[in-house]
Each structure stands twice: as structure tokens, then as C-alpha cells.
Amino acid sequence: MRLFAERGVSAVSVRDIAADAGVSPSLVIHHYGSKEGLRTAVDDRALTTLLSLLADTAGGGADGGSGYAPSASLASAVAERLGAGSEVSAYVRRLLVDGGPAAEVLFRALFDATVALLADLEANGLARSGDDRPARAAFLLVNDLAIILLRDQITRVLGVDPLSEPGMARWTETVLDVYTSGIFVGADPPEAP
Amino acid sequence: MRLFAERGVSAVSVRDIAADAGVSPSLVIHHYGSKEGLRTAVDDRALTTLLSLLADTAGGGADGGSGYAPSASLASAVAERLGAGSEVSAYVRRLLVDGGPAAEVLFRALFDATVALLADLEANGLARSGDDRPARAAFLLVNDLAIILLRDQITRVLGVDPLSEPGMARWTETVLDVYTSGIFVGADPPEAP
DNA sequence: TCGTTCACTGTACGTTTGTTCTATAATCTG
DNA sequence: CAGATTATAGAACAAACGTACAGTGAACGA
After folding, report:
1. Cβ proximity of B156 and A108 under 8 Å
2. I need a labelling partner for B63 at 20 to 30 A (CA). Which of A28, A164, A176, B23 fits?
3. What's the pLDDT at B182?
4. CA A135, B116, B87: angle at the middle one, nearest 5?
């Protein structure tokens, strides 16, 4: 999972994996049948981890009763629980970019959870109601995922890893400020003069 | 560029590229020296296109005088000018995910332009001032780039390509609503009970 | 204790890879 | 038109690739 996440599946050879694990290439094939079989196993492991983590987070956090600090949205909370060094959070990037069935399942689950969370917040009067709820949920979700996808680039321009503890604090503060008060002032410039 | 964007650099062979172009593999090597040389040439081409487009967009749009509809931020405007079917916008995804010098230059340029745009909006009273301007600029930027990075996944859950014309309209409406009025209501839940 | 399973290795095979070499047509230059 | 340069192809090569095969040693149930 680590090697796949770092270099991409096709850029890592079975020999690389075997050498990194300190075993022979034959053993990898023996256990997983083929490289594609290994990839599937890695996908399954990542998906299982993430979905169970998501179920915990969504169930405990949606009704506002749990004890974790309020993140901007779900993906942040999940990433927070994984920890910045986790191979899983690095593999999510590959998963989402390379596409495939596992990525679709994951994204759909995250989307559904975000829709549910948003509906809950609206019901409790914690969020403004909006016209286009699916689009709003998708917007919140991809904003969160962007931290994972562009982690290295963000680290480079801000000087702090947004998935580390201080980085997360700084990021969350900014995000909550925008999500609470907005950025643009109400008076739009004339669209049709 | 198209093949690299679709499958990733290491998953495309020189023979694939040559066959797609209707020439021999030898010719590709003859012109670019090596596969890595071709990759560099593709990077250069993408970077040149994007940076010049960015210069146009930032220069014309920052002072509010140009005629294009207000996008949420810079990347949207750039993507809008490229068109949804452009190979360049697809290659940006690979560029940002695979990393490397070209990606760093591009992201830094986009970040700087976003910072400048935000400062301009603040100066003209169109944006609230914030405490952490770099973080805010990074947040706006990666939110925009997320559309490109997660385009396929967004299309799947919303039923419309966010880089197409109708998809862009729907997305922009949602984004502007959030950026203008926020989502969360002002009264935060108690953080330290 | 014996036969069976299991984790594991070394070797080898066929394929694909990036690249080189040689050769030929086309195009430009003087 | 002669000569040089360029565009292009085909064959071939060494390396790396995924994987199959045969075999070895340890663990384990009967």
C-alpha cells in the first residue's frame, strides 16, 4: 500500500514490493495470485478501513454527542483518526486519482455520509438551508479531499503539513471561518450592466 | 499529453504513444531523446499554456474590469478558458498528483495569483479581511483544483460534469452562495463545555 | 512418526520495455 | 542539380517485467 501510494501501481514492480518486504517475488505471487490480485487486496484493505472508520465517525458525530472537536466535514475527521503518517491516507490519493471500482465505492460512501451530515445539521438549525443540497454536499466533500490530494503542495506554500496537528488546526480555523461567515461581501458586482 | 493524462506516465509505453500517433517508436525517441525527454516536453508545453493563460486571466480579472463572468476563483476561470475537453486540463491532474518540478511551479504560480487576487478583492471592499490570508488563499485554490482532480467522481454523484457549461454554472452558484453567506450558522456549538 | 500442508526460494520462460543501429525516402541549401 | 540535413522505418538488443515451475525446509494433524 505504501509503495503503491507513493509511486503509483504501474510504477512499482513485484520485485520492488518483494525487496521492500524482504521476501522473494515468487512469494508475492504465491499469496496474491498476480500483481492485479495484490492491488485488489490492497484496495479491499483500504476500503474496509476507511468505510468502518467512516461508519464510526458518521454515527458518533452526526447527532452532535461525541467528544471530538468539530472538523469542517467528514473527511477531515477520518483523516484525523488515521493520523498524518498513515499509509491509508496516502493511498486514498492514488485511489481517487486512478479511479476504479474501489474509488467509486469510497467516494459514493463519503458523499452519502456528507449529504446525511448536512441534512442533520440543517434539521438542528446549525446550517443554513440551501437550494442545491447535493451540489453543496459535493462541494464540502471535495474541499476536504483536496487537503489529502494536494497535501504536498499545500505544505510547500504554507510551510506546514495540513494533515499534521498544527497544520490541521490552522486549516480548520480558516475553513470554519469561511463556512460560517463567508468571504465575499453580499453586494455582488453587477452581472449584467 | 492525452495518454499521459489518461493512464499516467509509467503506464503508457513509447510504443503506445507511437501507435497512437501513427508513427514508429524510433521516431518518438529520435525527436525527444528518451521517454523522460518526452515527458519533460509535455510538462513544458502544459506549463507554458497554463502560465500564459493565468497571466491573462489574473491581469484582466483582478481589477474587475474584464468581461468574463465572475468565477469562484482563478482555477475555474482558467479551466473555463481551456474548455472541458482540453487535454491540458486533464494533464493538470496528473501533474499535481505525480508531483515534480513542473507541478511545484504551477501550484506556486496559482497560489501567488490567488493571494494577489484576494488582496485585490479586500482592497476594493469585495472580500472580508481575514486573519490568515495565506491559508485562506490556499483554501480557495485547492477547492478550485478539487474540481479538476475529482471531476469524474463529482460527475458520478451529481450526474453532471462540473467542467461542462451547465455543470460549471451549477457548481459556481453553489460555491458563490457558500463564499458569500457561509453554511454554518454563527452560534458555534460549545467547544469546551 | 509419517504424510500433508504451508511458507518460501531459485531458476527459468516468454513478453514487454526503452533504446540503439542501420538504412531509406524526403526536404532543404547552396 | 549536388550535397547535406532531416524525417522516418525496421530490426535487434539488453534489461526488466509478470509469472510459472520445481523444489526445500519447517510446522502440523493423524
Report:
1. yes
2. A176
3. 93
4. 55
